Amino acid sequence: MTTPDTDLDSLITDWLTLPDVAERMDLPITKARQLVKDRQLVAVRRGQRNVLSVPADFLSGDQVLKGLPGTLTLLADNKYTDEEALRWMFTADESLPGTPVQALRDNRGTEVRRRAQALGF
Q1: Residue-number span of the structural domain to which 53 is assigned
Q2: Interatomic CA distance for residues 31 and 16, integer angstroms
Q3: How confident is the model at residue 118 (pLDDT cuts 50, 70, 90)?
Q4: Given a cut of 50, is residue 1 above it in pLDDT?
């Protein structure tokens, strides 16, 4: 049986803790926590110490990846848990091609959001 941790770790190899996110974005830790609270980013608890972590691919330089907040909102509206949203964002889709997060990184956010919206139907 796989745990949610190992399942996500097989899809997402590079994680950032919230202090890492704050440092990379040059923000106080409180602002990094607010980004998660406002669903600009999604964080899950991982590892033995149960540390809140964000996929590194959710940042582009020192900014939140363009199109990510809207996509996360659509997934939440479709009742996806944070873990399910991460799984969807990092699972390859041959018709995209690639993963939804890679499509966002390649500035193909419209197609990603269209697919996220269609999940509810």
Answers
A1: 4-118
A2: 15
A3: confident
A4: no
